[in-house]
Amino acid sequence: MNRLLGIVVVLLALPFQGLAQGPSDHQRNVTDCRDGFSSCDRTKLSDAERTALAVADHQNNVAACNEGHRSCDHSSLTLSEARQAAVAGRLRNLSDCKDGIGDCDSSKLTPSEAAEVSTARHERNASDCRYEMGRCDPSKLTPSEKKDAEFAEHQRNVTNCKNGWTDCNHSNLSELEAHEVEAADHQRNLSDCRAGLATCDYSQLTMTEAGALANAEQTRNYRACLTGFGYCDRSRLSPAESKAIPDTSAVPR
Fold first, then answer.
1. Fewest CB atoms within 10 Å of the CB: 30, 37, 52, 124?
2. What angle, rounded to 10 degrees, do the helices at 25-34 and 47-66 form?
3. What is the domain extent for residue 100?
């Protein structure tokens, strides 16, 4: 009986032993070779595995050469692949020169490409000056571009002033713009007062606005006292409002 039980235990344990072993050493070696790890032992690969690895290595090298990676081995490329990589490199260099990023080698540009790059750089500088982005060189702007940049800067200042932002120069505003900014400041302060914000300056309100706010606060206070929700100041209730408020002094606690 004990012997039979021992056999059953051994048989049940076999599948779990197989699971615990995980990938075989051979499969791990194949993966290491595919990933380019130094632990790869090519001598342990089958003919089919070596062929598949060679194809994958070649494709990876072609991609590295087309993308300009340092791992590129030009000596392993075919003539057609080398030509394709050269075209990709020239286009990549042209793009880098136009965008002002990456490794631009101006010496590799054709005359027409150099003209394209010069135009692209001029347009990028004009855009940087207009939007205050990147590296703006005002000395390279045309008279028209300089006017556009100055107008854009003026409009940004007007927007900053209207929004109440710190980056505002009131001295650069026209008389009309100054009035518009003053109106925007007043409206913003009125909104703050209506919302009960700490930034409210009641001294800047007109009599009509102050009266309207006082009426709104009187209504809010009455509703708070009547419903028992919100801050209630009974001393500010009118006689008629006080009568409408139920006496809660006798309510058991």
1. 37
2. 20
3. 20-105
